[in-house]
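Lecture 7 notes. Example A: sequence first, then its structure tokens.
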Amino acid sequence: MTQKPDSSAGAGAPRVIPRSDHPVSRSSISPNALRVLYRLKEAGFEAFLVGGCVRDIILGRHPKDFDVATDALPDEVRRLFRNCRLVGRRFRLAHIVYGREVIEVATFRASGAPPPSEEPVPMREEDEEEKLAAEQAASALDATQPLEIVPAASAANAAPSAAAVRHRVQDDHGRLLRDNMYGSIDEDVWRRDFTVNALYYNIADFSIWDYVGGLEDIQARRLKLIGDVETRYREDPVRMLRAARFEAKLGFDIDEASAKPIGALRGLLASVPPARLFDEATKLFLTGHGAESFRVLRARGLFAVLFPAVDRYLDQHPSSLVEQLLVQGLRNTDRRVDEDKPVTPTFLFALLLYGPIAAYIEALPPQRWHEPQAILEACDRALRAAQERVSIPRRIALGVRDMYSLQPRLEGPRGRRALRLLEQPRFRAAYDLLTLRAALGLADGGTAQWWTTLQAASAAEREQMVEAPAGGARAGGTPAGSDTKAPRRRRRRSRGGG
């Protein structure tokens, strides 16, 4: 039976769903997340599990991440947990670290503040200097821009105060650049994106608080944006990508009001920092629903904004082998995620850029198609074009170049050089690309099978294999692998007479 809070809570009071009327059980929650919730509660703070983890448990899924919302300030959270670090530039978040699991704790925010999932992309471990600079910048910002505490009694729809306006910074399109404001739980819900992500599980009595009809939308498998749709997309255009991601991941339908403005506003994604779009791309394609994400993005015109050169190639070559290869590669990646096997952004971008790389190579005279320099130049051109929208870290760009430059060497194995290729750091990724091409007739199947057998063979068997001609192996094929078959290369004449 649904309970209602005291009417004194105001018009914005949530519908409170008791434990007996919802399926969220503590047995479905990470033990580390429970530790965080209980410690906050015991210290006298409100503590709620919130967002996608609540949604996924209701759907019978196993959440990969658990987020907590509280009225404790970041510094108060840090004092409670020795294993806590504060992160974030637009808004401070607390990360409670338990080995490989991180529980993210966010203080309740005012309605305009960005949600945790929309924070700038965290610095990666290899970028230590950038990470240090970011931390120093964040410290400087904290010192000069005091964080405003919004009174809990503020109404969700009240006009922002003069101080609030000073702390909110937007660009010319209405996108939020900074919002250093804390608020109450009654306000926190209004800055979340979709109703299905705005459910709060209260550790105090195990109830769920629902302000916006999120539970009904989960049951109806419906995605609905909270608030004025156009304003929310303008505040953060990435919400359009998140809508596509949830549509693909959950199999939900975007309601008409939330879907209609996407066509007119999708161009705003071009103003989003490329590093953030890289992060969103990996969430779209490397979390187990990449093939469906590709379909949804293409159908809603969002793929053209993320990867314009790739989209143009696919439009010019509808239903081509290259498109089939991309889709099959994404399906293979989805299967690896389901099997809890590692997946890499390097292979993803090799798939995504396959068409443009093929186009650049095939624009050259056929006799140059297998030249390593020509292949590398084609990769560089495709990578530069892609990075105008989506940042591609250098290590990934180098990996893509290696995968493609190895294709001619894999297609024409020569004696003991084949054994040395096995030791190449990028061999496995290049081999996976070769087998995928071979499955679609873009490379010789016998050669791909020869490499498969070679890897499984003993040392003595490998010696025998490389001394004999590679069964079915041939020098040739198309390194980029478009629908066009490459001509065989002529053997060079010996310079030495006789």
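Example B, a different protein, same format:
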Amino acid sequence: MPLIALPALLAVATLDVPQYPTIQLQARTNLIVNDNGFNLPPGASFNSVTVDINNAGRVTFSVSVVPGRDGPSIWYGGNGSGALTCNAENGEDVFISDPKINNANAIAFRQAFGTLNGIYTCDVASGNVTRVTAAPLGASDWGTPDVNDSGQFGYRASFTGGNAWASFASGSAAIHAADQGIDVGSPYNFLYTPSFDGLRRIAGKVRVAAAVPVPEHHEIRIFTSDGNSSLVAIDQAGSGTSTYPAFDNSVGFNDSGQVSFVVRLPASQAIVVRSNGVDSVQIARTGQGGLIGVDFFSSVVNAEGLVAFRGVDGNGQAIFVGDGTTLRRVVGKSDVIPSDLGPAQIGQNDSSPVFGGGVAINANGDVAFTAALHPPGNNQVEWGTGVYVAYAETDVLFRNGFE
């Protein structure tokens, strides 16, 4: 599907990519021999988490190690304050997914390797957790669950031999798409990590089995709960008119039916695209605006069509936001940003990544991320990893205070 040379889709044509003058620390973890961290129990830690943020600026992420517990916990807060609010089942092997938060402050996560696994919600007021579902029947895992503002859940359900994209609402589950491991009549032989929207739709990359005369190839599709789907993009193996050689495995998705995805080009080049299957907009391309690479983490797209992603510029890793007209670097390696210890520099003492996990963006354009820290000019001193929000200049929430 060729790219259409539009500055942006009609719905976002007047939107400007915001500036990000305020970056605020929400929490920080460090080795207890160094310091006690910030807004976390001393010795608590997390690794490569993807933070989520809702439109009110509330932030959540998972904490894998909590002193005094054998199981992980959920952190919730915003505007520079917060705490652990919900606990998963105790057990040193228990695993939870990166949590997702909707605009009613409902938090969803998946628990695995415990005694009662499935999709859970966290009540941030009481700290109670509730098991929502382990459907569909026969599922053994429930990957990357998300909850929308209607209280519907979307996820990838795993079965013995196959996977399905599923949703759960009003006490019942629906299968949006299934691979050939559980449905021999399916055209798909693999389903990648999906993204869920507020209209109970699931978007993602699928691998389509060979069917003469078309060889095996990849597509990006949007599926409704009745199993119908629409094509967003197809790679060159599936269509001779496509300009897309290959797609990354994860996508972003918003309620307007816009999907953001990364296309890999020859010679380690890449483009970031936003498309609804009819109109496609190039958000970024290596060589544009100082961008020299795109990391292998999912891009995300907000309700206004702004796309955020992890990339690389001349200083190293950085986070970018674009709308198809403007590409803005939000923050990156070597930047000095605020912390509870004073000004902190983003970086590592070696070539390790400076950002852990993916990024999140809300409707205001605020971007949540994690970053490795050290004192300015001294990367041999460990200040751990901070969870941050970069506030868009148009967002009045930060100026009015957190409620």
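Note on Example B: Residues 1-14, 396-403 have pLDDT under 50 and may be disordered. The helical segments are 397-400.
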